[in-house]
Design a protein that fits this description.
Layout: H1 2-25, H2 31-34, E1 69-76, E2 85-92, E3 102-107, H3 114-125, E4 133-138, H4 152-168, E5 176-181, H5 184-193, E6 202-206, H6 212-220, H7 236-239, E7 246-252, H8 260-270, E8 276-281, H9 289-293, H10 295-307
Parallel strand pairs: 3-4, 3-5, 5-6, 6-7, 7-8
Antiparallel strand pairs: 1-2, 2-4
Length: 308
């Protein structure tokens, strides 16, 4: 009995060693602040000349001509904002043809800025045949050269500002495709489930969150309420139930950041529409899907989903 009590005491002390620091540090090491990875500071966008680490690098056949690259700024101000923020955006395609084109609104992940995701935007711009689809990407508040502090509400407001711009150029809901990767799946899902300026026709989610609560549990390895370490309201697993549009879900089976089992499979299962397709990419980690799947296979997957 004595030995059993000692073992139980040791086990409880071990748990405390994990839990107490988590509570003590929660005010400065919160999930909502650490989710935003802004370490790579820049003074300009370098696109193909960007030399820092990237998930993959496309060859010259994917080069975007200067005439098809448009860097500009948008004023982003939601109903919950006291002021507007200048955010940076890039459009790949012919701006004069937006009214008759199909456009992919690409919501990037939590890392750094648009230079890091430039290769992904280029790949989408080559879906089908070169420049068949326009691609719009923004740097959220605090990312890249965009103004303001990053926040969940700001994330949604910034993507909606981009949608307002597309609408002003004549884009119809029928021609809007929403694509979210990693953290960007929260904006893509939110603005599809609860449309503001535009209502997307289809939704693609690559390596989506289930919710901040699941991410907290996965990261801590403990059954600790998410509210202790986060004020985030991200809950794709619930919001996706309201999405009636067609869904294309893509996830790597070896995702070590957002587990396919606890995140992706849950989101896919909960989709509220009548059509959905799953692409489980064998052996791919979080940022490896296009390269592991193969760029041509990836492009064909996106193409088939968009035109179905």
């Amino acid at each position: 009995m004595k030995n059993i009590l000692i073992k139980q005491l040791g086990s409880n002390l071990l748990k405390l060693l994990y839990i107490v620091p988590l509570f003590l540090l929660s005010s400065c090491l919160r999930l909502d602040s650490n989710l935003y990875n802004l370490e790579d500071k820049i003074t300009e966008y370098k696109w193909d000349k960007y030399t820092n680490v990237q998930d993959f690098k496309l060859d010259e056949s994917y080069k975007i001509q200067d005439s098809m690259m448009h860097l500009f700024t948008l004023d982003s101000k939601g109903t919950d904002d006291k002021k507007s923020y200048k955010i940076y955006a890039v459009y790949i395609g012919d701006i004069n043809k937006i009214a008759t084109d199909t456009v992919i609104m690409y919501c990037h992940g939590n890392k750094w800025h648009m230079d890091f995701y430039w290769q992904r935007a280029k790949l989408l711009a080559h879906t089908g045949s070169k420049h068949r689809y326009g691609v719009l990407m923004v740097d959220y508040r605090g990312y890249g050269l965009s103004e303001g502090p990053p926040s969940e509400a700001g994330l949604y407001n910034d993507v909606d500002a981009a949608l307002q711009w597309l609408k002003s150029k004549g884009l119809s809901n029928q021609r809007l495709i929403m694509y979210g990767f990693s953290m960007g799946t929260s904006a893509a899902t939110e603005l599809t489930a609860h449309p503001r300026s535009m209502s997307p026709n289809k939704l693609l989610l690559e390596a989506p969150f289930a919710s901040e609560a699941v991410m907290t549990a996965d990261a801590a390895g403990l059954n600790v309420p998410g509210s202790y370490v986060s004020n985030l309201k991200i809950d794709n697993a619930e919001e996706i139930k309201l999405v009636k549009q067609d869904l294309c879900w893509i996830h790597g089976t070896n995702d070590n950041f957002l587990s396919i089992k606890t995140h992706g499979e849950v989101v896919y299962k909960n989709h509220g529409g009548t059509y959905k397709e799953a692409h489980r990419i064998e052996g791919a980690d979080h940022g490896e899907i296009p390269a592991t799947f193969g760029f041509l296979n990836y492009s064909e997957m996106v193409e088939k989903f968009v035109v179905r």
